[in-house]
């Protein structure tokens, strides 16, 4: 017999009552978090403040972040950039995917040329190019994020359009001759899970892109704050911005997107990377 | 059907030609620092692969990408195996490490690495590994979840060597997922290679790009963007595609 630890988790869960197993795993996770904080604190004592400040000074700076308008306004600026870019890329990507779906002659142009091109171009490249074209301003930031998000929208919406139920469409065609009615009653509802999947993926990606775009091409936003902090060697502020982003991205995914998708979506729609 | 195909093809290629022509027309009206001509960009692009000093930068970026992909697949795989071997650690890997790495902003890693390690090759590789690891981790976790437990049980009844069942059964079943991890990591790696090289190192395509941006040398900015696309495609067609065919044959 192999040792117990090489048994599959599923087999072990069957042997023991599942509830305590899950609770113990959760306890282990909390202990891990504490151990991480302790290790951070311990290590921060051995290195200078400007290399790695401890959890307490960072927590104090975090408090200042939330109580100082000049700091937290940047979080709202970033959020604004991101929401604008998400809306733009969803519309542009959706229109392109729909065009390719209903006019098959466009298919190769959209999915074989445009989408791979956008997809393989790096976000920072778009940022630097749009700085060259439009200068350092809000538009540059929103443009760069939108271009990076568009291929995600195209790919996801294409996925959705390809899984449309043909039989359902045929049935609809036999009930109405109005194509718009068919579109509104059948196609749009069937696409909703994919719209949510797109939004969810876009949201995660856009924060990362937004930071880089704002760092080089913006005058507002958390990326800009990053830039300031880096110039002032304010590593506490850098860590605060990182913590705020992690908390916000993870929190929004859990609190907003996961329930929304559970309600409107298919679970596998979110598997598209 | 055939005519439809030809029309589709003509439209797609026509679009590419039209884009290049449109670019060329635009470049004649706009100054060079805004919109360099396609020809100018093409020669700069060729220079990135032919001029020895620039080729050194291109090669530096490529070497960092390859090293980071290899390291992040190993690290992601190691992390993914933890909950498989020790189910108690499941929540640690799934609910702590994965979301933490996954939502950590890449620019944040880049700035921190420069502060911690200074502008070195190791710092760039660290940034890239930190960004790529969650992608590998998620894929390999998924692969381990899908393993055929009955097959492993059968293996366990044939041999007492856990390492033998691992190499003969688990690894072959896992390989497609590892391959997917390599593929995704490779695609992301080229995109973030530039970010990792923007903060202080003095070699690589990211460095070239930032330097060009500062002196308004738009042709080089364009050329580095295209070089990334070319290198990405070359690696995928010449290395990854044959590799995944090899795995599929097994």
For the termini of chain B, the CA-CA separation is: 36 Å
Number of domains of chain B: 2
CATH class of the largest domain in chain B: Mainly Alpha
Identify the CATH architecture of chain A.
Orthogonal Bundle
- SSE succession of chain B: HHHHHHHHHH
Count the E strands of chain A: 0
Q: What is the H/E order of chain A?
A: HHHHHHHHHHH
Structural class of chain B: mainly alpha
As for the CATH topology of chain A, it is: MetI-like fold
Oligomer: heterodimer
- How many domains of chain A? The number is 1
**Envelope shape of chain B:** globular
Q: Tell me the radius of gyration of chain B.
A: 23 Å
The biggest beta sheet of chain B reads: none
Classify the fold: give the CATH topology of the largest domain in chain B: MetI-like fold
What percent of the residues of chain A sit in helical stretches (DSSP H or I)?
over 70%
Can you describe what's shown?
- Chain A is mainly alpha-helical.
- Chain A is 82% helix and 0% strand.
- Chain A is built from eleven helices and no strands.
- Chain A is globular, with a radius of gyration of 24 Å.
- Chain B has two domains: 1-30; 36-249, Orthogonal Bundle (MetI-like fold), CATH 1.10.3720.
- Chain B is 86% helix and 0% strand.
- Chain B contains ten helices and no strands.
- Chain B has helices spanning 2-29, 38-50, 52-85, 90-103, 106-117, 121-145, 149-158, 162-197, 205-214, 218-249.
- In chain B, helix 5 (106-117) crosses helix 6 (121-145) and helix 8 (162-197) packs antiparallel against helix 10 (218-249).
- Chain B is globular, with a radius of gyration of 23 Å.
- The chains are: A mainly alpha (273), B mainly alpha (250).
- At the A-B interface, helix 1, helix 2, helix 5, helix 6 and helix 9 of A face helix 1, helix 3, helix 4, helix 5 and helix 7 of B.
């Amino acid at each position: 017999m192999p040792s117990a630890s090489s048994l599959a988790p599923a087999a072990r869960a069957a042997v023991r009552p599942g509830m305590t197993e899950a609770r113990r795993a959760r306890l282990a996770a909390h202990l891990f978090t504490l151990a991480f904080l302790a290790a951070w604190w311990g290590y921060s004592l051995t290195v200078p403040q400007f290399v790695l400040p401890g959890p307490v000074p960072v927590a104090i700076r975090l408090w200042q972040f939330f109580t100082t308008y000049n700091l937290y306004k940047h979080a709202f600026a970033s959020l604004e950039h991101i929401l604008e870019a998400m809306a733009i890329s969803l519309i542009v990507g959706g229109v392109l995917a729909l065009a390719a779906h209903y006019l098959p002659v466009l298919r190769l142009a959209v999915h074989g040329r445009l989408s791979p091109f956008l997809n393989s171009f790096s976000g920072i490249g778009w940022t630097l190019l749009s700085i060259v074209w439009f200068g350092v301003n809000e538009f540059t930031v929103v443009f760069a994020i939108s271009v990076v998000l568009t291929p995600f929208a195209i790919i996801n919406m294409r996925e959705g359009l390809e899984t449309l139920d043909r039989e359902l469409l045929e049935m609809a065609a036999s009930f109405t001759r109005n194509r718009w009615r068919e579109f509104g009653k059948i196609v749009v509802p069937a696409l909703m899970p994919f719209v949510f999947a797109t939004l969810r993926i876009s949201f995660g990606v856009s924060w990362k892109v937004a930071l880089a775009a704002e760092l080089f091409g913006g005058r507002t936003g958390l990326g800009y704050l990053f830039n300031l902090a880096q110039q002032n060697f304010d590593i506490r502020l850098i860590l605060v911005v990182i913590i705020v982003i992690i908390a916000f991205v993870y929190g929004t995914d859990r609190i907003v997107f996961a329930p929304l998708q559970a309600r409107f979506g298919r679970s596998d729609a979110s598997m598209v990377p | 059907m055939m005519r439809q195909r030809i029309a589709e093809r003509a439209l797609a290629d026509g679009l590419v030609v039209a884009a290049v022509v449109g670019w060329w027309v635009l470049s004649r009206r706009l100054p060079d620092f805004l919109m360099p001509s396609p020809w100018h960009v093409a020669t700069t692009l060729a220079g990135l692969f032919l001029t020895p000093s620039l080729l050194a930068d291109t090669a530096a970026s490529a070497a960092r990408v390859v090293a980071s992909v290899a390291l992040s697949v190993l690290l992601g795989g190691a992390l993914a195996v933890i909950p498989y071997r020790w189910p108690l650690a499941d929540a640690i890997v799934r609910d702590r490490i994965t979301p933490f790495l996954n939502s950590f902003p890449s620019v944040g890693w880049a700035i921190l690495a420069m502060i911690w390690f200074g502008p070195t090759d190791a710092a760039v590789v660290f940034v890239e590994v930190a960004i790529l690891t969650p992608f590998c981790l998620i894929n390999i976790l998924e692969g381990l979840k899908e393993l055929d437990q009955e097959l492993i049980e059968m293996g366990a009844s044939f041999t007492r060597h856990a390492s033998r069942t691992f190499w003969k059964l688990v690894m072959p079943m896992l390989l497609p997922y590892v391959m997917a991890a390599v593929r995704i990591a490779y695609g992301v790696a080229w995109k973030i290679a530039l970010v990792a090289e923007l903060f202080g190192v003095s070699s690589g395509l990211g460095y070239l790009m930032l330097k060009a941006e500062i002196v308004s040398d738009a042709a080089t900015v364009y050329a580095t963007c295209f070089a990334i696309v070319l290198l990405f495609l070359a690696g995928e067609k010449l290395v990854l595609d044959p590799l995944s065919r090899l795995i599929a044959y097994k």
